[in-house]
């Protein structure tokens, strides 16, 4: 059994629609009622949720966005490159990893409604991270990017969008 298979089995991870594997490990019992949320939310949300997320160098996390801020936390494996496109079309990337002496970030927050994707930096490797979302995640808030649609909005980022989308 490979190291990746061991982690998937030990943490009981399942395939994620954007790529990689995940397992929800926390969902607050308390909820925010719909009237206290902005119009982006169709129903109540838990205060917060978190997942384990495992990505391998054989795949990538495709561009997607959610209605909430999402904090990425690095745990182990290869550093991960997170690609972000703001609503205004600004692009940047950050490296999430444990080598803080080399300017890797232990955690990073992607702001709500920003498009983002991720890839493992080292070949034949994996990245194990955690993602915390507040208000809590619901798949109703998840939008997987359509390549041609996203390129039509941000043609200046065609290369990275093409590389990190599937449809």
Question: How would you sum up this structure, described in words?
Answer:
The chain is mostly beta strands and 167 residues long. The chain has a single domain, classed as Jelly Rolls (Sandwich). It is 13% helix and 41% strand. It has three helices and 13 strands. It has helices at residues 3-11, 147-153, 158-163; strands at residues 14-15, 21-27, 31-32, 45-46, 49-56, 61-65, 69-77, 80-85, 91-96, 107-110, 115-120, 126-134, 143-144. The strands form three sheets. Strands 1-2-5-12-7-10 form a six-stranded antiparallel beta sheet, covered by helices on one side. β1 (14-15) and β2 (21-27) form a beta hairpin. The longest helix has 9 residues, at 3-11. It is globular and about 45 Å long. The two termini are 31 Å apart.
Helix and strand arrangement:
Layout: H1 3-11, E1 14-15, E2 21-27, E3 31-32, E4 45-46, E5 49-56, E6 61-65, E7 69-77, E8 80-85, E9 91-96, E10 107-110, E11 115-120, E12 126-134, E13 143-144, H2 147-153, H3 158-163
Antiparallel strand pairs: 1-2, 2-5, 3-4, 5-12, 6-11, 6-13, 7-10, 7-12, 8-9, 8-11
- CATH-level-2 architecture: Sandwich
How many β strands by DSSP?
13
What is the structural class? Answer: mainly beta
SS element count, helices: 3
Through-space gap between termini: 31 Å
In helices, the fraction of residues equals 10-25%
Strand proportion, as a percent range, falls in 35-45%
**What is the N-to-C order of secondary-structure elements (H for helix, E for strand)?**
HEEEEEEEEEEEEEHH
Q: What global shape is seen?
A: globular
CATH class membership: Mainly Beta
């Amino acid at each position: 059994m490979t190291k990746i298979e061991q982690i998937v089995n030990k943490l009981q991870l399942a395939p994620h629609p954007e790529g990689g594997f995940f397992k929800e490990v926390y969902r607050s019992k308390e909820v925010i009622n719909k009237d206290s949320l902005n119009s982006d939310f169709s129903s109540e949300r838990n205060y917060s949720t978190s997942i384990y997320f495992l990505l391998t160098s054989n795949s990538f996390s495709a561009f997607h966005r959610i209605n909430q801020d999402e904090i990425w936390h690095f745990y182990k494996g290869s550093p991960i490159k997170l690609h972000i496109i703001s609503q205004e079309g600004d692009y940047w990337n950050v490296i999430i990893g444990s080598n803080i002496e080399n300017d890797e970030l232990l955690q990073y927050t992607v702001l709500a409604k920003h498009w983002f994707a991720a890839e493992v930096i080292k070949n034949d490797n994996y990245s194990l991270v955690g993602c915390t979302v507040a208000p809590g995640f619901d798949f109703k808030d998840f939008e997987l990017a359509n390549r041609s649609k996203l390129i039509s909005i941000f043609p200046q980022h065609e290369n990275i969008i093409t590389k990190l989308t599937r449809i």
